[in-house]
Amino acid sequence: MEYSHSDAELVRQPIGYWTWAAYKAVVTRTRGALAELGLSQPQWWVLHQVYSAHEEGRTRAEVTQTLRGYLDVGDGLGAEIDGAVAQGWVEEDSAQRLHGTPEGAALYAKAAELQHELWAERHADISDEEYLTTLKVLQRFIRNTGGTAWHH
Asked: Which InterPro entries does the annotation name (predicted)?
């Protein structure tokens, strides 16, 4: 691969810029691909929380709390959950637990497959070792600057 700068120049580049540029590229690509399925990225997050290994269902608070743990969502998921219910992708039972529907399960399966394709696209020509090193270095940057990060 051809890089944008020589190693001597690149080592002086600001990490903040490159992490922002990577974030923007990944999120823009992901959101565009999900939009082709009629989903926003926050809707995908909600579906993933409802459909992945939660047979007893999840409450709105559980979904929001889990996502708040590693995404900057604040309290803004109510509208996304309402939208998923209105679309018929999720239903809420009398105990106020969210469950999947056949329509939602079909969409979730398509979106999950798309996420696997996007993962492979992002990781093309990147070894597991390189990826692991990148994440460990980013975690050290976070720690060195007094930040916190967690992902489930």
From this structure: WH-like_DNA-bd_sf, WH_DNA-bd_sf
